[in-house]
Amino acid sequence: MPFVSVGPQNVHYQLTGPSGAPVLLAIHSLGASSHLFDRLAALLEPRLRVLRFDLPGHGLSSISGAESAASIAALARGAAGLLDALSLPRVHALGVSIGGQIALQLAASAPARVDRLVLCATASRIGSRELWLERMNAVSSGGLAAVADAVLERWTSDGFRERAPAEAAGLRALLMSTSPAGYVAACAALRDADLRPECARVSAPTLVVAGERDVAIPVASARELSDSIPGARFEVVAGAGHLPVFEAPEAVAARVLEFLAEHTPAETLAELFERGLEVRRAVLGAAHVDRALAAATDLDREFQEHITRTAWGSVWARPGLDRRTRSLATIALLIALGREEELALHLRASRNTGVTPRELAELLLHCSVYAGVPAANAAIRVAKTVLSE
């Protein structure tokens, strides 16, 4: 596990994604850790290098006595210190809740460090002084258990907890693993923070994202933040609570990538080809792809490059659907179109995308209704051959 010393603190971090890609610094919310971004990072990493770290007293990061009286400005300086330690002079920044305030402070006080800014489920002023004093007293006397139920109720929507009880249990474990001292220190920072004067100083292009059902930061508060930052763009994630990055990572990833693409020079054909080649090999298998490229002649060499850039570099690499879902959709379309050679190829590839034989059986039955029995019958014959290999 990578750690780095930033002043008196030992900081746990993760830096994942393709070498050479733009870096996105992701700063988590109060009571969470860098694991909050696990699913979001996986969706962003085809395009970005994601830097996640644990705030003081959260996750695996230490907390010193000096940090027990933290401020948002001090936490922003800590984030800048991490960038210095990793030799990252300029990054995109994404912050959630208190992480959003830290990212905002970093962008306002060190504009040369932040290229693009994404503020999620945050506001320039979060809660009241009385709320944070009450929370600090409760945790100081009774630990995280004293506030866990109330906090978790605000983190996600009711619908999420009902349909994903295991993930909701994981959030509870994340909260309960937080150091009480680290939690109280972060509450003190929120108690004293009022970043309204900082908003006008933000020069980085900014996206503000709100959860439609966020009771901690209502949509109106997030919109007020967006209105106070020059030129900021505002988006709402339907149905999400206070942690859209955890509850609806696909929706957040799509918005983040679209926002960054608007302010980034278009990718070169060579870059699209390299990304497409990586995805194509991962799905179809490196041996098959290498054979296809090696066998290309003047007749089809440009065609091979074209499908690698467009089908694989542009479409399959998008974050909106995972590879398993794209694999199932592709197989269904090939069944309906009667493309048996391509169908066999993608049936073999489904082993690399996590599709099970049981799911293939259900898909074949489903296609018999919508694509017709003859098409499904022919596909079953192909599938039996492939699955027996």
Provide a descriptive summary of the structure in words.
With 389 residues, the chain is of the alpha/beta class. The chain has two domains: 3-262, Rossmann fold, CATH 3.40.50.1820; 271-387, Up-down Bundle (AhpD-like). The protein has helices spanning 38-44, 72-85, 98-109, 129-142, 148-155, 158-163, 165-176, 180-192, 196-199, 219-228, 244-247, 249-262, 269-284, 286-294, 301-316, 323-337, 340-349, 357-370, 373-387, and strands spanning 3-6, 9-16, 23-27, 49-53, 91-96, 114-120, 206-211, 233-237. An eight-stranded mixed β-sheet has the order 1-2-4-3-5-6-7-8, with helices on both faces.
Q: CATH first level of the largest domain: which class?
A: Alpha Beta
DSSP strand tally: 8
Strand order of the largest sheet: 1-2-4-3-5-6-7-8
Please give the domain count: 2
Oligomer: single chain
CATH topology value of the largest domain: Rossmann fold
Please name the fourth-level CATH homologous superfamily of the largest domain: Alpha/Beta hydrolase fold, catalytic domain
- Give the SSE order as H and E letters: EEEHEHEHEHHHHHHEHEHHHHHHHHH
Alpha-carbon distance between the termini?
40 Å
Low-confidence stretches are none
Q: What is the second-level CATH architecture of the largest domain?
A: 3-Layer(aba) Sandwich
> Helix/strand/pairing class, anyone?
alpha/beta
Round the Cα radius of gyration to an integer and report it: 24 Å
Q: What is the helical fraction, as a range of percent?
A: 40-55%
With helices defined by DSSP (H or I, 4 residues minimum), what is the helix count? Answer: 19
**What composes the largest sheet?**
8 strands, mixed
Query: What is the general shape?
Result: globular
Fraction of residues in β-strands: 5-15%
